[in-house]
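Dear colleague,

Thank you for sharing your sequence with our group. We've completed the structure prediction you requested, and as agreed, I am returning the results in plain text so they can be pasted directly into your records. Please verify that the sequence below matches your submission; if there's any discrepancy, let me know and we will rerun it promptly.
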Amino acid sequence: MVIWAIIHFYLSTTLIKFLPLVSYFFILDAVLFLVGGAILLIGLRLLYIPTLILTWINYLLLTESRIYPAPILGKPLPAINSFVLGTFVLDIILIVVVTLTLLTSEK
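Please find the predicted structure tokens below.
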């Protein structure tokens, strides 16, 4: 989750001049992922499900914004670039890891 947050912090700094609203969204999203990572490291089982929901929302938003108009911009975003591919892979890995953590954690 930290790698995911670093990518989005980097993207936010490159977009701040051109698309400040998108940049702020990336910053908020990166902070949420840092919190999600802390939840998994600390072992707050009560918050595993919200963390899993966060990972699914981000995956679905990334997918949706490549097909349909992005909510803020009103047009579909570029479908393929290194950041998109990396984020797709990280999102899928995060969904699997958080799901396995939830399923294998002791009650």
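Summary note from our side: The chain has one domain: 1-106.

Kind regards,
the structure core
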